Amino acid sequence: MLALIILDGWGTSHEREGNAPALARTPTLLHLSKHYLYGHLTASGPAVGLKGVEPASSELGHTTLGAGRVLQDPWQFKKRFQDGALLKSRTLSSALQHVIKNGGQLHLMGLTEPGEAPGQILKSLIEWAGRSKVKATHLHMVLDGHDSGPFEGRRYLKELKRYLDGMAGVHLSSCTGRAHFLNPSGQAGLTRLLVEALTQEKGVRAEDPETYLEGCYRRGLADDEIKPTCLSGTKGEGVRIRESDALILFSPGKTLEVSHLAKALPGKIRIVHLFKDETPLKTGWAFELEPLATNLGELVSEAKLSQIRLAETLKSRQVSFYLNGGRANPYPREDRVFIPSQDHVRHERNPALSAHAVTRAALKAIRLRRYELVVLNYANGDIVGHTGDLKAAIQAVETVDACLAKVLACLSAAGGDVVITSDHGNCECMRTRDGRPFRAHTSNDVPFYIASFRRNLRLQRNQGSLTDIAPTVLELLGMPKPGVMTGSSLI
């Protein structure tokens, strides 16, 4: 039996200031680092298919962990926009015809995500809309603040405005934080505020997005917390989405997360998801995401081994859909147990989240001795890390360490092996250099720990990347590494 435990949003840093794992009491992890195999993995930049030192998102991190190779363009976004692919989509053509026939306007909405592919997607859509006969195209930008820095939105919108300069009929019409757009806690009030801003122009109004966001930052608000805001500098066109209009939601891999918004909008608005995964949709979609072949979950299933995925619902998609390379449905002999996340917007008030319930589920799965692979995600480092509350993050880290002690004791009794790692950094950097709370992912390395309670293992190297985890797990399971995996086993 092997357990792969993912400490979400848990990096390493030599800096102690604002470093929750360094400041917390973590006897379990300290014991592992001293008596078992320990090292660091690169989780940013070219090692995960990004530029420079861009940090991985939770989605990309889990996809890379399962793929065992660098993914420059996981679902071939760039390829899909070559050779006039947008013009060939019947769904997009139908949405345009709806707008033109009814004298409406086109609306594009999605996350300001880091990386080359998301930016190219938006630019391709803008150029496609510019060649159409719609009278106006409105951009409704969702500020990230998680996968990118907490105060990067102003710079992004400034660059977007520069790109749009002189482009007739295209307007930057609204902005909002990702909390309202993705709404992971499912709070109806967050969605209602966004719908009212989009369809009735209610709520906050601002003339210039850069000036407005700078004021928000001074008040301590990060990008993800920005309320739905109508930008009035749109040459009198207005930003309201009407029944004669069409809305294209272009954030890849977020179909399930934004489905609540699509359901809350008036029914006659033509809504199109640019990308469809295996989430059931009642609205239209233009391109279907194809799952990534030859990933860890698939290989374990093909070997006729049993596996289970465990997480709280805030990270259920990461440990299933993304770890399986974009496949929503379980593989044969793959079970899933997802513990409901507690409905708290302010996660700093409950830094334990649902870790104890997730641990109980893991102990039950291990004691059954039914599974050759147990995959477990602890969300605390990432979710509480995004609050910017250092004290809460320290409590979150200590909670997870205590939970790990129980899981490792159970694995020891079962004579199992364990690999512990993370998908990206976060909670190890909770302060900026000037002392402000830092809420975003980092480009720091992440730790790995490998232990066996039945045999001696030897570490090949103490530095690697996320791509090395799948090959390591396969070796511990006694399985060969496929040629497509460019990562190497750490043992």
Your description of this structure?
The protein folds into 2 domains: 2-73 and 293-476, Alkaline Phosphatase, subunit A; 77-288, BPG-independent phosphoglycerate mutase, domain B (2,3-Bisphosphoglycerate-independent phosphoglycerate mutase, substrate-binding domain), CATH 3.40.1450.10. 35% of the residues lie in helices and 18% in strands. An 8-stranded mixed beta sheet has the order 12-11-13-1-14-15-2-16, with helices on both faces. It has an 8-stranded mixed beta sheet with strand order 6-7-5-4-3-8-9-10, with helices on both faces. It has 491 residues and is of the alpha/beta class. Helix 15 packs parallel to helix 17. The protein starts with a strand and ends in a 15-residue tail after the last helix. The longest helix has 25 residues, at 390-414.
Compact summary:
The chain has 491 residues and is α/β, with parallel strands linked by helices. Helices cover 35% and strands 18% of the residues.
